[in-house]
Amino acid sequence: MKGAGGKGAVSHTQSLPQTRKDSVSSEADRSQWSRERLLEELKKKEEENEKLKLQLQHQHDVTPSCPSLTINTLTHRLPPLTETPLTHAQVARYSRQLILPEFGPKGQRKLVAASVLIVGCGGLGCPAAIYLAAAGVGRLGLVDYDTVELNNLHRQVLHTEGRVGIAKVLSVAQSVKAVNSTVQVVPYDVSLTSSVALEVIREYDVVLDCTDNVATRYLLNDACVLADKPLVSGSALRYEGQLTVYHYQGGPCFRCIHPKPPPPETVTNCSDGGVLGMVPGVIGCMQALEAIKIVSHLGTPLTQKLVLYDGLQGTFHTVRLRGMKSGCEVCGEAPTIKELIDYEQFCGAAATDKDKGVTLLDRNKRVTVEEYSALVEAKEPHVLIDVRLPVELEICSLPACVNIPLKDIDKAESINLIQNKLAGLGTSKVFCVCRRGNDSQLAVRKLESCLSPVQCQVKDIVGGLMAWAHKIDSSVPVY
Ligand SMILES: Nc1ncnc2c1ncn2[C@@H]1O[C@H](COP(=O)(O)OP(=O)(O)OP(=O)(O)O)[C@@H](O)[C@H]1O
Ligand SMILES: [Zn+2]
User: Fold this and answer.
1) Which end of the chain, N or C, is less surrounded by CB atoms within 10 Å?
2) pLDDT of 106-154, one tens digit each?
3) Coiled coil where (predicted)?
4) Binding annotation for ATP
């Protein structure tokens, strides 16, 4: 209200008639206005300042006031944490959880002496980190190679507008320190790979998988089995989330349940499938709770059990998982995986969910956005098929497109529709467009198998609507 009131209040007072009383009050308003503008300026400068400070730390400079926020170099071994009696300050800070009979001072002492590694500082990692820090975990390791993007802020709630472009681990470290300066925070601005995973994981008591890709899930699983650490695994997509604990108290590991990786094309990420922020929020909090249960010996951990959360229905279901598999390649009786392997090769997919862009079609079956734009300018008759979901067309679309989602493109009614449109326009030219130019290539392939080349020539638009937004029309929103 305060921020929104500033400018609105000025235009309102300016339109009032100028009586003496009014002019006094408008002077007061003016001074209030300039004060608010100054405050706004100050806020902006403070944000810039914070960004610069974080960038400095990013370049491995130690900030004297907060040396623990330096990026950890991996070669630096961390001193062990030991259980000590609670100080008066700790008793005062954690009093509301200390009086829980099952947890009590004993649980708190264990938590303060515990270290938790969070891999992935996104939608799951943010809530997990802040709840663990607030509860008083002794040491929090944070791993992520990525930087904060504007489209992260709706769910990755520890990052701020002022930190867009900054390493996620530093952003989370900063937020965590602001809530509990007594927690040791160890940021690792790296991609967790086979060459570093064991070295990092061995330093921690529990590992939280807050990542978003299959290759990293197998890597973390194998590393946790080899280093003998419990792995609290979470995931969230659209309105649904899942949670379980692997390799703990004789329970199965991820490989016992999923010995083979899924075909890469069947895996959907948040960037393509969407996600409502509260869903990873719920699951991330539950991951933090499982970690606390493990280190403080509290309750019954979710080993050999999978929690399924349906945010739309507001329901939780717990299903029992199969037990440890004696033939499991990593945790079984005669394991064949004794060291970390190449997980990208094993999964046939990169250890990231970032869209790399694929080229499936020959150049002569594709047009660039510049070529398509010229064709539109020249009013060349053609049919443009947008193969995205209808909800995506509500965000942006090109004029005169026909929406046929990729999954429906080879259905008889879709083919009829395309043929009728072509006949109506007296053309054989079909162009397929999608968000980034991957699905549109699949659409071309599907259409080629349904339509004869005499009837039509199908091409895709390279880079899709995002290329159009960047190169042709900046009024098209990027999403
Ligand atoms: N091998 C890895 N090493 C380090 N960090 C990883 C690894 N794999 C995934 N991550 C990180 O895990 C996090 C997963 O979080 P999330 O999916 O919420 O974020 P995102 O990938 O930024 O989001 P979006 O999919 O919307 O672009 C990301 O920040 C990603 O960088
Ligand atoms: Zn196993």
Assistant:
1) N
2) 999 999 999 999 999 999 999 999 999 999 999 999 999 999 999 999 9
3) none
4) 123, 144, 151-155, 168, 212-213
